[in-house]
Specification:
Length: 120
């Protein structure tokens, strides 16, 4: 049996990149709108530094995360970072350390509520 690749080796092999695109506060009627775009090339604040270099062949993974109730003074961080307002324990264990450090922690139990893979 060969050595299993590390997470960094695997992200380099597939040229994986993760980037935050948008956030929103859900309205009183339970609705929220999202929109965003990303250009080919380097990705500002990308987690792995691989960029977005093959848009026509990329598999896009869309993740929607609930950050819990709005926290006064922290709302902008909640909707603009992965961790904003979340306890460390409520972050998905599979997320890399760089993701778990993205944002100001808080008292909310956060959870992934939607995951979709979009293929070319």
């Amino acid at each position: 049996m060969g050595d299993r690749p590390t997470q960094n080796d695997a992200t380099d092999i597939v040229q994986a990149e993760v980037a935050y695109l948008t956030g929103s506060v859900v309205s009183d009627n339970g609705m929220a709108g999202f929109g965003g775009s990303i250009r080919a090339g380097s990705v500002p604040n990308g987690w792995f530094g691989n960029g977005f270099n093959n848009p026509r062949g990329a598999h896009i993974h869309l993740i929607l995360m609930d950050h819990g109730p709005a926290i006064p003074g922290l709302v902008s961080n909640q909707i603009n970072t992965l961790r904003g307002g979340c306890t460390f324990e409520s972050l998905p264990p599979a997320f890399p350390d760089v993701a778990k450090a993205d944002g100001i922690p808080g008292p909310n139990t956060c959870r992934l509520v939607q995951f979709a893979v979009l293929e070319p």
